């Protein structure tokens, strides 16, 4: 069965301590992989879309990479305001299928 | 540019009642998708509407239904509410093309008592 698994479930970092979040996926054909950030009580906020293995995208302290089986979200020198739940989602290569399948998320806490 | 707007933000309903949630997409977006988010199950896809037609449906009972209007605004209805329907309901809009990112609203927090 197709699935998306994120690890770790929770991560606590000191401010400035770089780390990576993992998203592994098994789908019959990947159309796109999406990273979102979600703050408590709010809707997910779009971060990145990755389409093919080897692709990388950056935004401020965040960098997303993609392989054939997983994606990493690297956080460099995080700040307390980076604390949030990070969600990844995959979209399958199915005609007219616009839905996304989400992982359970990684809850990141950055302490000052 | 205005984002995705969901109303109401909070709702409290009693078991057995029905509820209607509303979603106004970003201007120009023709696709609206609905998701249910709970602590135990995470974000789960309910259905997608594109040009007033349901294009895709997740694995939810028939008590969950939706529709889309000609201006792309969408409504979601849940009938005969159960305690387990308590969740954050999120809608997301995009142009409707594959591979395009979706933008989410703030959600409607539904509590069934």
Describe this structure in words.
The complex is a heterodimer of chains A (112) and B (113). With 112 residues, chain A is an all-beta fold. Chain A contains no helices and eleven strands. In chain A, strands 2, 4, 5, 9, 10 and 11 form a six-stranded mixed sheet that branches. In chain A, strand 6 (56-59) and strand 7 form a beta hairpin. Chain A is globular and about 45 Å long. The model of chain A has no long low-confidence stretch (mean pLDDT 92). Chain B is mainly β and 113 residues long. Chain B has no helices and eleven strands. Chain B has strands at residues 5-7, 10-13, 19-24, 31-38, 42-50, 53-57, 64-68, 74-78, 87-94, 103-104, 108-112. In chain B, strands 2, 4, 5, 6, 9, 10 and 11 form a seven-stranded mixed sheet that branches. Chain B has a four-stranded antiparallel sheet with strand order 1-3-8-7, with no helix packed on it. Chain B is globular and about 35 Å long. Classes of the chains: A mainly beta (112), B mainly beta (113). Chain A binds chain B through residues 31-32, 34, 36, 41-46, 49, 51, 87, 89, 91, 96-105, and chain B through 4, 6, 31, 33, 35, 42-45, 48, 50, 55-56, 58, 90, 92, 94, 96, 98-107, 109.
